[in-house]
Design goal:
The protein has 22 helices and nine strands. The protein is mostly helical. Strands 5-2-6-7-8 form a five-stranded parallel beta sheet. Strands 1-3 form a two-stranded parallel ribbon. A two-stranded parallel ribbon has the order 4-9. α16 crosses α17 (about 485-505). The chain is elongated and about 90 Å long. The termini are close together.
Length: about 675
């Protein structure tokens, strides 16, 4: 038996590499390792194939669970049989995966643009990189390379982050790509290489061990573990003192610990976590075939639905085929949209001419003969009014029973407000920029309403306001918005709806006043305790789009459902629509009122969503968001301290496991 204070084990190599394993793998160990690796790769193929197809979500979740379980099994096998697979086999596996993955990417780039090739190529290359890094960890000089890569990655992220607020659109995207490469590639690889040397340091021979039953634990390992826990606790306490929930901080710490442990352990779990997240986020959402009730220009009692995402059904789990193609048609018309649900057996309407399109502004709705600035949205070919005129030409007898239109929110920048309020800083400080747009929005609405009336003379038209999304005055721990930000959003929606009402009144349109409180009356607002965690509107959610891979895998496309009504929300909107129709049996256009006396036209607002460059409101708002993010550098230091803490804990725990193996070999 070895001495309690000093244990002789296989030393590190002369070049400073990690210690050699204590024993060779048995044939059983080798068989188990190969089987676990094969199972993990097989479920990976299943997950990738499922993600690239617009299949049922349960099948995707089943593939995700299978891949997660098999990855954990593979990690467990590696954890206990570190030497079961030879380094030569690891290098060969890395080479095969990189070659096959790179070939898939080259074929997509220069050959057949098959939709699944980019995901397949990226996943194989990323997995191959994981095997390559595992091989590099056992080479001399790995620690030095790791330190340099960590330093280079940190410098790149810092410089790019400081440059972002001053970059134009092209430079902005390039800098975001650089930050992504540094965060997802350079820093993790550097951390992997540096971790090997750090674990070697806490298990080095000749160190005094703890007494008694803890004789296999080195004092250095215990000190590192204690330091890590202390630092992690300090970060959690600091978060609580700063006014943030300690529960959130603790959960974030646990997640970081799991990710950091995966990186440190050399079990490829970090690779599996990234691949699983990418496959889930980039999964093509299911699509449905357009039903007969949505055939345009037909029906004895037809409804025409015009407008933007609140009418088209953005926020749904599935969309009609051809309307959720990134980079092509992104109207996202959904079968759960209340306009689509308003037609069918037992409903007031037998058909819906469904032209509403996510992202529409007034110049995407108005007829091209009524506005020289009118232009169609991508994939639509013509504006919504121009499409109506074509439908009338193809179906001369078509006379809809009612037109509903919901538009103006994008002209007023409501989506940009939501983005700003989810960013660091208080978005209420930017309200003047958006409120100054409202007079122009009103004029655009009146021109659009007149264009619709001209296209469908004698048909009643209803202007639909936007529902209040957030319960006023309620505590809201689950939404990352301050009290002042929630108040600003409610106030702005109220002002926007007031502008829509005035434009409708002056244009002689009906106004669906009850729609403003549709979510509130059904207890489907965010922050409403009465819905028991099932609001009718998404706070922040991630979902990809269909279409080309460069669109589906772009993070800029993953937040489109955020702050939009979901299926529960649209059910509440439908109930409000039905009740309003019951209380207002419209059969003819509304009575026109004398237009209110208009004040002199206000000066043009300082920004616009129809211009480009520095005068664009979204450009100005994103510059403000980036300045707020850069201003959070003290919190960045706290986060860095927390990551160092969980890294130290991971090094200590996994180094302890290595110490057990090495000391067992020496006893």
């Amino acid at each position: 038996m070895a001495d309690a204070a000093v244990v002789t084990v296989t030393p590190p190599d002369a070049a400073g590499g990690p210690p050699a394993p204590a024993a060779s793998a048995t044939p059983v160990h080798l068989l188990v390792s190969v089987g676990a690796a094969g199972l993990s790769l097989g479920t990976l193929v299943w997950l990738v194939c499922t993600s690239t197809m617009a299949g049922p979500l349960p099948l995707l979740y089943a593939a995700l669970i299978a891949f997660g379980v098999s990855s954990l099994v593979w990690a467990f096998v590696q954890f206990w049989y570190t030497d079961a697979l030879a380094l030569a086999m690891a290098l060969a596996t890395a080479g095969v995966l990189l070659v096959v993955g790179g070939t898939a990417l080259l074929v997509y780039r220069f050959g057949t643009p098959a939709d699944g090739l980019p995901l397949i190529g990226f996943v194989l290359c990323y997995a191959g990189l994981g095997w390559l890094v595992g091989w590099l960890r056992h080479q001399s000089g790995a620690l030095a390379w790791g330190k340099w890569m960590l330093l280079a990655g940190a410098v790149v992220v810092l410089v790019a982050a400081l440059t972002l607020p001053h970059a134009g659109r092209g430079g902005y995207l390039a800098l975001v790509a650089v930050i992504g490469i540094a965060v997802l590639l350079v820093i993790p690889v550097g951390l992997n290489l540096a971790s090997e040397g750090a674990m070697d340091a806490v298990t080095k021979v000749g160190l005094t061990t703890l007494p008694g039953p803890l004789a296999k634990i080195t004092v250095r390992s215990a000190v590192v573990f204690g330091a890590g826990l202390t630092l992690a606790g300090a970060v959690i306490v600091a978060a609580e003192v700063a006014g943030h929930s300690w529960k959130v901080a603790a959960l974030a710490t646990l997640f970081a610990l799991a990710l950091m442990a995966a990186i440190v352990s050399d079990t490829h779990l970090d690779i599996a976590m990234v691949i699983a997240a990418l496959a889930l986020l980039a999964a093509a959402p299911p699509q449905e075939v357009l039903p007969a009730k949505l055939d345009p220009g037909v029906g004895q009692s037809a409804l025409v639905a015009l407008g933007d995402s609140y009418m088209s059904g953005e926020g749904a789990a599935r969309f009609y085929a051809g309307t959720d193609d990134g980079g092509a048609n992104e109207c996202r018309r959904a079968p759960t949209a209340y306009a689509a649900l308003a037609a069918g057996p037992g409903q007031r309407f037998d058909h819906v001419t469904f032209l509403a399109c996510s992202g529409a502004r007034t110049y995407n709705v108005i007829g091209s003969t009524n506005d020289s600035q009118a232009r169609p949205q991508p994939g639509e070919g013509k504006t919504q009014v121009d499409q109506l005129l074509d439908i009338k030409a193809a179906h001369p007898s078509f006379r809809p029973r009612l037109v509903i239109v919901s538009v103006g929110g994008n002209d007023a920048g409501f989506a940009t407000i939501g983005e700003a309020c989810l960013a660091p800083g208080d978005c209420a400080t930017q309200k003047r920029r958006f409120e100054e747009l409202l007079p122009r929005v009103q004029r655009s609405l009146m021109a659009t309403y007149a264009s619709i009336e001209k296209a469908l003379p004698g048909v009643p038209i209803v202007a639909v306001p936007y529902p209040q999304p957030i319960a006023a005055g309620s505590a809201c721990n689950g939404l990352p918005l301050s009290k002042s930000e929630r108040a600003f959003i409610n106030e702005f929606v109220e002002k926007l709806d007031g502008v829509i009402r005035k434009a409708a009144d002056d244009s002689g349109l009906y106004y669906m006043d009850t729609m403003q409180d549709a979510l509130a009356s059904a207890h489907r607002q965010l922050c409403d305790p009465e819905n028991h965690g099932h609001p009718g509107i998404y706070p922040v959610t991630l979902a990809s789009v269909s279409g080309l891979a460069n669109q589906r895998f772009s993070p800029l496309k993953w937040t489109h459902d955020s702050l939009h009504p979901n299926a529960l929300g649209h059910a509440a909107l439908l109930a409000t629509f039905d009740k309003w129709l019951a209380d207002h049996p419209v059969s003819a256009p509304a009575t026109k009122h004398a237009p209110s006396v208009e004040a002199p036209a206000p000066a043009d607002p300082p920004c616009s969503f129809s211009t480009s460059g520095s005068s664009n409101c979204q450009t100005q708002t994103r510059a403000w968001e980036l300045r707020q993010a850069v201003g959070l550098w003290p919190w960045g230091i706290a986060v860095l301290a927390g990551l160092i803490a969980v890294w130290l804990v991971s090094i200590a725990v996994l180094g302890l496991r290595r110490s057990f193996v090495l000391r067992s070999g020496g006893e």
